[in-house]
Specification:
Elements (H helix, E strand, L loop, with lengths): L1 E6 L8 H8 L6 H4 E12 L2 E4 L3 E2 L5 E10 L4 E9 L6 E7 L11 E6 L5 E9 L3 E10 L6 H19 L6 E7 L7 E3 L5 E10 L5 E3 L7 E3 L6 E3 L17 E7 L11 H16 L7 H11 L8
Helix pairs in contact: 1-4, 3-4, 4-5
């Protein structure tokens, strides 16, 4: 199987916080392990929308703390959390909406733990009708950061090992898949599941002339059946051509678990990654014992040889 990575993943399926919990890495002091960032400082705010700056979690656990003061009569406050991979494009976090604050429930503290997987979060507060007093803080855990770079590298190592072992893409990526000629069957099986979409299918003849095929006319894509396939339409055949000496057919596709149903990374894969990173941490200066890696492999469970 010949393939080339075109666009790598943007966010690892494991966070530093999850790994640190696995290896029990902290400073031993609650004060040293937490940092409070003022997202919106204490103030009385009139009817308007207030958006905080993005806060870089970088794998940390985070609690968003809404400290409500006094609402003026009929004043209403609605707060929600947004998330982002790049601190530019934000979207609502699905579990990030606080209960509406009115004069019936003001002068109280409300909190939500962020359990999403994005690197950045920000808070958006909407005041309507009359002014409301409030402040919003984001409390993050820091722990020991001296090995964060090494831990991040081990997360990538564990993911790449798991992807190679299972034939699954643990997070979205773009890949070019190469064939030397068309298969004898009426379909091409995609190499990494789950397949999300096919960007292009091209073939190159012996003279080096490349032709791009048209989806739904020259081929159809099956993303429902794992690992994903590219089929010929009914009563059609693959183009007849004299292939280029190597990599005559190039199929570019996007594959990988996105974190939303039905493309949620299996829990056994995530647990295997956690265990693998823990072993890399424990045996950092020596080889990991075979019996320990066998346990990791057993957690992965699924291998490409099980595909049909």
């Amino acid at each position: 199987m010949q393939y080339k990575l075109i666009t790598d993943i943007t966010t690892e399926p494991l966070t530093l916080a999850e790994v640190k919990a696995q290896i029990r890495a902290d400073s031993g002091s609650y004060a040293d392990d937490t940092v409070t960032t003022q997202a919106l400082v204490p103030a009385s705010r009139g009817a308007n929308t207030y958006t905080s700056s993005g806060i870089d979690l970088s794998g940390k656990l985070a609690i968003v703390n809404l400290n409500s003061g006094t609402n003026q009569a009929t004043g209403k406050l609605n707060v929600h959390i947004e998330e982002s991979d790049d601190n530019v494009t934000y979207a609502d976090w699905s579990d990030g909406t606080f209960a509406e604050i009115t004069t019936d429930n003001d002068n109280a503290v409300y909190e939500k733990q962020y359990t999403g997987s994005k690197r950045y979060i920000r808070v958006v507060a909407v005041v309507t009708v009359a002014a409301c007093e409030f402040a919003i803080d984001v409390i993050t855990n820091t722990g020991d950061t001296s090995e964060d770079t090494q831990l991040a590298s081990w997360i990538t190592t564990a993911r790449e090992y798991g992807e190679d072992y299972t034939g699954h893409a643990f997070a979205p990526k773009t890949i070019d898949y190469y064939l030397n000629d068309w298969p004898d069957t009426d379909f091409v099986k995609w190499p990494f599941e789950p397949l999300a979409s096919i960007t292009s299918v091209k073939y190159k003849n012996s003279a080096g002339t490349e032709t791009t095929m048209t989806e739904n006319t020259d081929y159809i894509v099956d993303v429902s059946t794992y690992p994903g396939k590219i089929f010929l339409p009914y009563n059609e055949s693959w183009p007849d051509f004299v292939p280029y000496p190597y990599n005559a057919v190039t199929i570019r596709g996007v594959c990988g678990y996105t974190g939303t149903v039905p493309y949620v990374l299996p829990k056994q894969f995530k647990q295997a990654m956690l265990m693998h990173v823990g072993l890399l941490y424990k045996y950092r200066d020596e080889a990991i014992p075979y019996k320990d890696m066998r346990t990791v492999n057993n957690l992965y469970g699924i291998r490409r040889s099980t595909w049909f």
